[in-house]
Amino acid sequence: MGWWSKIAAAALISFFPVLVNTVKGLKEADREYFELFRTLRADGWQEFRKLRIPYCLPYLASVLKISSSLAIVGAIVGEFVGAMQGLGYLIRISSAHLDTDVLFSAIFAAAIGISLFYALGWLERRVIFWQQFDLEP
Question: Average pLDDT for residues 99-114, to the nearest whole number?
Answer without folding.
Answer: 77
